[in-house]
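This is your field. Pick holes in the following sequence-structure pair:
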Amino acid sequence: MSSLEAAARPINVLAGRELEFVQLGHAIVLGFSGGRRVVIESVARLGDILVKPGEPSDDRSDSGGSAGSDALIESDCSDESDGSDESDESDGSDESDGSDGSEALAVLLGDVVREARAGFDGELRISFARGAELRIDPDADAESWAVTGPDDFLIVCMPGGELAAWGGATAGA
């Protein structure tokens, strides 16, 4: 266990929650069961893949959508054996530069949060049951992430990595 992990604040409101949808746009929104949300407004990492908000709507030529439109990726329990592994591999090789890494978050749909922790430096780490880890580093100049939940739970990583908490987050995450 690193010193960051030992000094990190657990965000228990996410633990045990299933990722139900990923919304791509100027910010990336991860929607979890029970109405929990993680809003990502800066660069994140899913393993070695960079995840950048805003790129999908800028790079995509959606039918009928504008450059500023959002995309929504939802969990669908019916496609368990549709060969998605093959399409994921071909998508990964086509996007070797990671320019649309936010779509890589789709592999997390249906996965359950094992643990979520906010470091005192502002880093957010979300570990999933299947072994993936999403890391969002603080931004020196802007808010980089926020976690929302029931009872007005809100934690925001402010510019520079300072954490601010409101509602249920002040009583303990």
